[in-house]
Each structure stands twice: as C-alpha cells, then as structure tokens.
Design brief:
The chain has about 280 residues and is mainly alpha-helical. It contains 12 helices and no strands.
Length: about 280
C-alpha cells in the first residue's frame, strides 16, 4: 500500500486529476441511491424545464435543473454514472478475456490457428467499430445486457493483437524453453509462464479502453439502439435533450461535460498505469 501511495504522490498532475475524478465517480456510482436527491424517474410536470440554480429562474431544489418531464437532472446524472461504469468495466472485461485468450492461442501455437485468428482480426478491422456494434444491437435488441455483450464481443481485437505480438517474443525466452524441456503441458506453459508476462499490457490497454466503451454506449443510446429510455444514462440524457438544445441547453450540456471529463480522466489513469509499468514509455503516444 505504501508503494501505491508513493507512486501516486510522484505521479503527474494529469494523473492525479484523473485518479481523483475516477475515485469520485466510483463513490458516486456506488452511493447513487443515497446521494441522489430524488428518484431516478420521479416526474414533476409543474417543474418541467426548470433551469439550473445559476441561471435566472433556477433554484437549489434542482441544482442542475429539470428535463422536459420534470425529472431532476442531477439525480439522473448520478444514476447515469453508475450505468456508464457498469457498461465500461463489464464490457471491457468481456473484450479483454476474449482478446487475451485468442492472442495467447495465436501467438503460442502459430500455424493454422494463428492464420484463422489473424483473419478474424482482419475481418473485424474491415468494419468500423461503431457500425458493427450498431448492426449487432439492432439485431439483438436494445437492452443493457445486449449493449454490454455487443461492446465486449466487438472490442477484443486490440487485446488479441497486443497479446499475440508479445507472446511471439516471450515464447522464445529461456524460461519458456526450460518449461518445454521439463515436459510441462502447453496449457501450463501458456497460463503459468506466458500469461503473467503479457497480462499487464492487456490490463493497461483495457483501462484506457473503458473511456472508448463508455463513449460507444452513449453513441448507441443517442441513436436509439442502446439502453432503453426508462434507464437513466448519459447517452439517454443527451438524446432526450437534443430537441431542447436551444431552449434548454443544460439538458445536453451537463451530461456531455460529465461524459467528456469522465472519459478524459480514465485516459489519464491509463497513461499513468502505462508509465508506472514502463517509465521508458512516458511521453510516448
């Protein structure tokens, strides 16, 4: 624990900013039912389109104002943070697991297995990520579970490419050759010898990819093919406020700013983890 605090103290300002924002984000998401001043879908038609407290006509009863149905924007922002984290983390784990396994198999066995997996990667790269996600969500239907599965299934390619490249190098190391000489099985060598040497890069890549996944979820939801409207998400909030962008701009501005700051902070944390793992990469894009 002391080593972790030491690394944080010696981190850059952007890394500290990212860590603070992500930590606050996690706390808010976990404590959403306690912190939210109203229910997620509580409707007060008499207060519809009430402006934020810093604008004329606003009040502290609704700090960030209300939407077209009179729902509290702050409350929905808090609950939306929970959905964004769930989608980003769970979909990221799904993509990481699939990508790491395929990358290990391709790099270690080579031959026809490598050819098949490499061609799968080429096919996935031939389609824009968001376009493929749109097709799958449209086919499966809009729901939180389907969005997570689609973003996870379509997001394994970067992990597979990274792990495959590292496995091709690691499998030539002396400790791997020694394991072969001792008669260790392929499964033991892959998961006991090679995996620990390549998993760090995959985890760092996964951390940096969470922001992309959250943006993808917001994009799908904004287009009406993501999470259903009855669930508060930042993408839903932006989509719902699109028709009022000139008369009630806070409906899109506030969740948009939250989405921007959150995703940038996650990237800052990913950069920090990368630098901690290998200081030689500091400042290298």
């Amino acid at each position: 624990m002391n080593d972790v605090w030491k690394m944080i103290r010696h981190s850059t300002r952007t890394a500290k900013f990212g860590l603070v924002v992500v930590a606050v984000w996690i706390v808010v998401a976990v404590l959403a039912p306690i912190l939210a001043p109203y229910g997620m879908n509580d409707i007060d038609v008499a207060q519809r389109l009430a402006p934020p407290c810093w604008m004329e006509g606003g009040s502290m009863d609704h700090i960030f104002g209300t939407d077209q149905l009179g729902r509290d924007v702050l409350t929905r922002l808090i609950y939306g943070s929970r959905i964004s984290l769930i989608v980003g983390i769970v979909a990221g784990i799904v993509g990481l697991v699939i990508g790491v396994i395929l990358g290990l198999l391709a790099g270690y066995f080579g031959g026809w297995i490598d050819v098949v997996i490499s061609r799968m990667i080429d096919v996935m790269l031939a389609f824009p990520f968001i376009f493929l996600a749109l097709l799958l969500v449209a086919a499966l239907g809009a729901s939180l579970t389907n969005v997570i599965l689609v973003l996870g299934i379509t997001g394994w390619v970067p992990y597979a490419r990274t792990v495959r490249a590292q496995v091709l190098s690691v499998k030539e190391k002396e400790f791997v050759k020694a394991a072969h000489a001792l008669g260790c099985s392929d499964g033991r060598i892959i998961f006991k010898q090679i995996l620990p040497s390549v998993i760090d890069s995959a985890i760092i890549l996964g951390t940096m990819d969470i922001g992309t996944i959250i943006l993808s979820e917001a994009s799908l939801t904004f287009l009406g093919l993501g999470i259903p409207p009855n669930i508060a998400t930042w993408g839903n909030m932006i989509a719902n406020g699109n028709d009022y962008i000139f008369s009630a701009g806070w409906l899109t501005m506030i969740p948009g700013i939250a989405l921007l700051i959150g995703c940038i902070s996650i990237n800052f944390v990913g950069d920090w983890l990368r630098d901690v793992r290998d200081p030689r990469l500091r400042g290298v894009d």
